[in-house]
Design a protein that fits this description.
The complex is a heterotrimer of chains A (401), B (301) and C (554). Chain A is built from 14 helices and 16 strands. Chain A is an alpha/beta fold and 401 residues long. Chain A folds into two domains: 3-256, Rossmann fold; 264-394, 3-Layer(aba) Sandwich (Rossmann fold). Chain A starts with a helix and ends in a 7-residue tail after the last strand. Chains in contact: A-B, A-C, B-C. Strand 9 of chain A pairs parallel with strand 4 of chain B.
Chain lengths: 401, 301, 554
């Protein structure tokens, strides 16, 4: 069968973000799933349980008692050489924190869907992105998706990358805005996916006939020379991952006909003002860019799709010619600023040209970012030569007000 | 299929495999019963075993075992065992035994959540809690398994631990898992029988293995087996089995000694007055009677 | 798949477990930790230590317990050629010291010895593969000392001729011990077994009568062993002793054992407290005497007779009066009518260690009797040595070198009761063995091996009895040799094997560091890794391991 025809084999389904993630895991033939319910992720797990019960997915499903245990189960199962999947959100991801380090430094090729939303106290489920972003140091790759199609597709290519470079991958998307909204998603036939993603092969797995030691060290404690080299080796893996992702994106396009990239600029090449955003803010901004361009404002959008490894060179190149850059962070790194703003400023510091970066924080705790808010931020950027502060609060007054 | 070479333990007229999976050179303390019992269990379980262990003294003596070893985080011994079992099952390997090995801290305290959940799911592994009644690896701090009256570095004098030892056997029995057993190094025939029995079963099998710790309990290393024996003979550590949470079998030792004699051997109880020990003896005696009443079978060791 | 020149590798964080290098990272030579090290420290079993013959009891019991009857028999045969005898008449020094006695019940060593001894006799002795020597040795007396010496000399390869004065062989075994204690058949079979080694025995040849001692010396034997025993009864030295109705003890027993009719009165009174006295009393009772009593000048505790025999005598209705001594035999018409006695009390110990009996003046009384058997001790009859030059000491015993048992006369040796005075069979057997060694040394110049420094004798506290289960002692009285593979085997397995490593594998199993390699008969410690925890030594069921300070500290 010609590749063209193969690309087309599949069908459209109306899927929510969570069902897209579940569908992706099912198509990828995940073998061990361990998950704990938490709003807004629960439906990922429910859908996977249905797949398993119906025989569509031959996997062991382990109804663990906490997210911490969920990831711990998968880390050891991963050492067992099988393909693993889980999903979580909010407190669940925070609870997993210790194990995120373990799986990251432990080089377990786990794929996890993260439905981003609020961390308490007080308990809340409104959309924001702290939960995922604060985990950026744990040795996981991170993708941020803007559509349900992208969620499904990213799960598939996440496994391919993960198993090539032995790093775990988070596939993040907005709580409620994406998780609970439905879009038509082209679901490829399973065997088409099989052609892209073979079963997991690894030389190193738990096997009584070939005893190896996993997550262990040569001595009772590892010792500085050994461990420091290991740290460097893990960082090196992220550099390799950077290249691997690009290659896999190309393979994905060839196989499925849909193209993805680590960053996705929209009319940014000649823009004077570029808005940098993740996920739904980015998807909302296309129309605003077109509208403002008609008004003579040369505005552009840069969506960051892969956050770890951070595509520094791609981002700095894309922003070089802008006069100003603005970013809308739907998160707060307390005592500092929004996280995207932080990362951008650090990236641009070594660029030849350093346009001023306006760091907006808005749309946290479920507060909506409407097109109006986006326009407000762009307007503000046009009106000010430079930001007067590290953080510009977008639609969030002080407590007293 | 190579024939397994066996050695006879003449005192008990039983045979155990000769093969060693725990070679010397590990850095557990001299006389450590935990190290001895891991060595014994691995012998009995044979070559098709995967070991997973969290932070504990076993980090010292599991280092060079000749079995695949999967280290895990402190809280998640049972979760790690779950994951390994799942992977093996998915690969079609139903034969390899998953042995989860954790200390009393990693089992009864920080690990109890994962363990309770795994037991509720009746995960198919053998869980061995080697109980040295404290966080010995990190410097002898108290755990919920530390008995009342004991000195530890976090219950120093004049305020030794007040609270009684957590009833881990009762907790695990309440999960109605197929097999719960206590055993210790001083009764090799009993330990061998129970491990071999567990080997033939499926589902969650839980062992509480008393491991008197020379370093933490303050006694000379050559007495570690003797103290284990005295713990059983003083009835403070009864040897028993619980099947499916309902059928209790108690093994009665050949002789009985007073709790006082047991406690006087240990520096960690050195500060106790006669009156304290008398009160403890009374309560141990009462609990023993209750245990015998609950048992459907009492046999001689 | 390659990316920009790097091979994408599938990695997980692990350490590959391989031989050599990685293993050396994972393990340490923990032997450097220790300050004491375990060593094999075998000790002597208390049973062998108590036995005058130092029989290797635990060694043969182990083999018997494993069903290896022939191998057990070989050991016993080498240590005690008259096991069928001692298994019946020995006072049994071993069993009271058996450590098992403090746990449940002592091993039935005597009965086991009897069974194995009977088996040995039935199989016959086998000689070691030793070339026959041209030297010949003469032994005077076919009692236990003489038979034992003949056996051991035979094993060396020497030719042996025993000269026995009486018509039947065995000495006191035949003539002095009653049938019910030691059947003549057993003695005969035992002697036959020894003759089966090529030993010549000539009965009815009394040295001193049929041939003089000096003639014997000139007959060309390279050595002569005097083993005549102590069979001459001591006299009471009271008036009336020579009257009719007063019988010497050994003489009485000899008469009974010869099958002759013996006429006894109705009221028999035996004087003495040794085996001869008890045997005489019981024999008298069995012969139908109306009443039999024993008078002994000390108390029960000092009686030299086998305790079991005293118990049986009492059960049979024989009355024993303690702390009573005769002062005169009362005669009527020249025959015994009674004994005048005096009561005694115990004073300071004499040179045998027993408290000396002292008469209580004014406590005289009379005992009715028509027969008196005097069994107060025996001395050797050494009249045949008159004019020989052999030195006899003031107690009437022959003097000898303690190592070789050589007398002052060249090539003349002595063993048994003739050397020591009345003693036990096992002591005579041990003496015979010693004499044989002394004779061999004299003939070959071979040095007698120096006995090792006094060994540690294993006490009950040295054991770890927690590894044994209580079991009742098997009742082997009356059992036949078929029991050797049944109840005797079961009984033999009760032996603790005090002080001897029998590769029970307890230490091997308990060791936290897997540094003990135990093979049968040897134990090895891997000192590169042994931490010296001492669990092995503490737990060894039989006290065969000890802990030694590390020499590097000195």
């Amino acid at each position: 069968m010609a590749l063209e025809e193969e690309k087309g084999r599949g069908s459209y389904e109306l899927l929510s973000g969570t069902y897209s993630a579940a569908c992706g895991a099912m198509l990828c033939r995940a073998q061990v799933v361990a998950a704990y319910p938490i709003t807004p992720q629960s439906t990922v797990v429910e859908r996977l349980s249905e797949y398993i019960a119906e025989g569509k997915l031959e996997a062991k499903f382990i109804p663990v008692e906490s997210e911490h245990s969920a990831l711990a189960v998968l880390a050891s199962a991963s050492a067992g050489g099988v393909r693993t999947f889980t999903a979580t959100a909010r407190q669940g991801l925070a609870l997993m924190h210790e194990v995120l380090h373990w799986a990251g430094r432990g080089r377990c090729p786990i794929v996890m869907a993260v439905v981003t939303a609020s961390l308490g106290p007080p308990p809340d489920i409104g959309m924001e992105q702290d939960d995922a972003l604060v985990q950026r140091d744990t040795g996981w790759m991170q993708f941020y998706c803007q559509s349900n199609q992208e969620i499904l597709d990213t799960i598939i290519l996440a496994y391919r990358v993960a198993e090539l470079v032995s790093l775990p991958v988070m596939v993040c998307f907005d709580g409620f805005i994406m998780s609970h909204t439905y879009e038509p998603v082209f679901v490829p036939d399973r065997d088409v996916v099989d052609g892209f993603l073979p079963p997991r092969q690894t030389k190193f797995k738990i096997d009584p006939d070939n005893p190896l030691r996993f997550f262990a060290s040569p001595g009772a404690v590892a010792g500085a020379p050994y461990l420091s080299k290991l740290r460097r080796r893990t960082q090196d893996a992220f550099e390799i991952a950077m290249e691997a992702v690009k290659q896999v994106h190309e393979e994905f396009y060839q196989h499925f006909g849909r193209r993805y990239d680590v960053i996705e600029p929209y009319r940014a090449e000649d823009a004077e003002v570029i808005l940098v955003a993740l996920t739904s803010v980015a998807s909302m901004t296309h129309d605003i860019v077109d509208e403002l361009r008609k008004q003579g404002k040369k505005v552009g959008l840069l969506r960051v799709r892969m956050f770890r490894p951070f595509p520094r060179q791609e981002i700095t190149a894309a922003l070089q010619n802008a006069a100003k850059v603005l970013v809308i962070d739907r998160n707060v790194s307390y005592g500092r600023s929004g996280i995207m703003a932080l990362e951008l400023r650090a990236a641009m510091y070594s660029a030849p040209k350093k346009p001023p970066i306006f760091g907006f924080i808005g749309g946290v705790a479920g507060l909506s970012i409407t097109p109006g808010r986006i326009r407000e931020a762009i307007q503000y950027t046009y009106e000010h030569r430079e930001p007067d502060d590290e953080v510009i609060w977008l639609g969030i007054p002080r407590w007293e007000e | 299929m190579p024939v397994e070479k066996l050695r006879r333990l003449k005192q008990f007229d039983i045979e155990v495999p000769e093969a060693e999976y725990a070679p010397p050179g590990h850095t557990a303390c001299a006389g450590c019963p935990g190290a001895a019992m891991m060595r014994q269990m691995l012998k009995l379980l044979g070559p098709k075993v995967v070991l997973t262990n969290p932070a504990s003294c076993s980090g010292y003596f599991a280092r060079a075992v000749e079995a695949p070893l999967c280290r895990c985080l402190f809280e998640v011994a049972a979760a790690s065992g779950t994951g390994i079992r799942a992977a093996l099952d998915v690969r079609g390997d139903k034969e390899t035994i998953v042995l989860v090995w954790a200390g009393d801290g990693g089992t009864a305290d920080i690990g109890i959540q994962a363990l309770s959940a795994a037991a509720e799911r009746n995960e198919d592994f053998i869980y061995a809690c080697y109980d040295n009644e404290g966080y010995m690896m990190t410097g002898m701090q108290r755990s919920s398994s530390t008995p009342a009256g004991a000195w530890t570095t976090t219950t120093p004098l004049p305020q030794p631990k007040k609270e009684r030892k957590k009833d881990l056997v009762g907790i695990m029995a309440a999960h109605h898992i197929p097999y719960v057993a206590t055993a210790t190094i001083a009764y090799p025939q009993d330990l061998v029988r129970k491990v071999l029995k567990a080997k033939t079963m499926r589902g969650t099998r839980f062992f509480n293995l008393l491991a008197p710790c020379p370093t933490g309990w303050r006694f000379a290393p050559n007495l570690s087996v003797k103290l284990a024996r005295m713990a059983v003979e003083s009835r403070v550590f009864p040897l028993l089995e619980v099947e499916d949470g309902v059928r209790w079998t108690v093994q009665r030792p050949q002789q009985e000694i007073s709790l006082r004699d047991y406690m006087k051997m240990q520096g960690r109880f050195g500060h106790l007055e006669e009156a304290d020990m008398e009160a403890m003896e009374k309560s141990v005696g009462e609990e023993w009677e209750l245990l015998l009443a609950k048992a459907s079978r009492v046999c001689d060791l | 798949m390659k990316i920009k020149g790097c091979e994408i590798c599938d990695e997980t964080m692990h350490v590959q477990f391989v031989e050599g290098e990685a293993l050396s990272l994972l393990t340490s030579k923990t032997g450097s930790w220790r300050s004491v090290r375990p060593v094999l420290a075998e000790g002597a079993a208390p049973c062998s230590h108590a036995c005058p013959g130092s029989i290797r009891i635990r060694e043969y019991l182990e083999l018997l317990g494993e069903g290896r009857v022939n191998e057990a028999a070989e050991i016993l045969a080498v240590d005690n050629p008259l096991a069928a005898i001692t298994g019946r008449v020995c006072p049994c020094f071993c069993e009271p010291d058996c450590n098992r006695g403090r746990f449940d019940e002592p091993l039935a060593i005597k009965q086991l010895e009897r069974l194995l001894g009977d088996y040995i006799v039935r199989q016959g002795f086998s000689l070691p593969d030793v070339p026959a020597k041209k030297e010949r040795v003469a032994i005077i007396g076919s009692g236990p000392a003489g038979l034992s010496a003949a056996y051991y000399l035979g094993r060396y390869g020497y030719g042996v001729t025993i000269l026995e004065a009486l018509s039947a062989t065995g000495g006191m075994l035949y003539w002095g011990v009653p049938e019910y204690r030691l059947p003549k058949r057993v003695v005969d079979e035992q002697v036959e077994a020894i003759k089966g080694l090529g030993v010549e025995i000539r009965t009815n040849v009394a040295v001193g009568q049929d041939v003089t001692f000096n003639e014997l010396l000139a007959e060309g034997y390279e050595a002569v062993l005097i083993a005549v025993g102590a069979q001459k009864d001591l006299r009471l030295n009271v008036s009336g002793e020579d009257a009719g109705g007063v019988l010497p003890g050994v003489g009485f027993l000899r008469q009974v054992n010869s099958g002759d009719e013996v006429s006894l009165g109705n009221r028999v009174c035996v004087i003495g407290g040794g085996n001869t006295a008890i045997d005489s009393a019981r024999v008298a009772a069995h012969l139908g005497a109306g009443s039999v009593s024993i008078l002994y000048r000390r108390s029960r505790a000092e009686m030299p007779a086998v305790a079991g025999e005293v118990d049986v005598a009492l059960e049979e209705g024989i009355e024993i009066q303690f702390l009573v001594a005769p002062t005169e035999i009362i005669l009527r018409s020249g025959r015994v009518a009674g004994i005048r006695c005096v009561r005694m009390e115990l004073g300071e110990p004499d040179d045998t260690g027993r408290r000396r009996p002292i008469p209580i003046s004014g406590s005289e009384f009379e005992v009715e009797a028509d027969t008196v058997i005097v069994a107060i001790g025996q001395v050797p009859d050494l009249s045949f040595l008159n004019g020989s030059g052999v030195e006899i000491d003031r107690t009437g015993l022959i003097g000898a070198d303690s190592q070789t048992l050589a007398t002052n006369l060249p090539k003349v040796f002595v063993a048994g009761d003739a050397l020591t005075g009345p003693a036990t069979v096992i002591e005579a057997i041990a003496a015979g063995k010693k004499a044989a060694r002394g004779i061999d040394s004299h003939l070959t110049g071979r040095e007698i091996p120096v006995s090792p420094e006094s060994e540690r004798v294993i006490k009950y506290e040295d054991l770890n009895v927690n590894y044994f289960k209580r079991e009742a002692r098997q009742d082997l009285k009356g059992a036949g040799v078929e029991a050797l593979t049944e109840t005797a085997c079961t009984e033999a397995r009760r032996c603790f094997q005090c002080g001897r490593c029998n590769a029970c594998n307890t230490c091997w199993f308990l060791c936290p560091d897997a540094v003990i390699l135990q093979k049968v008969g040897e134990i090895e410690f891997d000192y590169d890794y042994c931490k010296g925890c001492g669990v092995c030594a503490e737990e060894c069921p039989r006290g065969a391991l000890g802990m030694e300070e590390e020499s590097r500290w000195h």
